[in-house]
Amino acid sequence: MLIQVMKSKIHRVRVTEADLNYIGSITIDENLMDAANLQENEKVQVVNINNGERLETYVIKGVRGSGVICLNGPAARKVAVGDIVIIIGYGLMDQEAARSFRPAVVFPDELTNLIRS
User: Fold this and answer.
1) Domain boundaries, the chain
2) Is the pTM of this model over 0.85?
């Protein structure tokens, strides 16, 4: 049996932009994507700490090192610039593999969204 487990998490990152007129998705700084093992077009869940909203969308690459976190399209109505969100990616694996799997979890600086060294 396959189960769905957290494989990636960007924990407490600040929304820098919200673009209602874009076709949809979440734009994420490519450095954050790499650190969290997220792929372009991968489905993610976004959890808004400020208002409790939860949504699913897909990832698009943002400019590397920019700290950009932009909710696009209808998702832009679920956030405000400055909100703190958690971005979670999930994977399917068998139960045995899940017992030893360790997800990639990133704790960026909440002011700059850059990876803390």
Assistant:
1) 2-92
2) yes
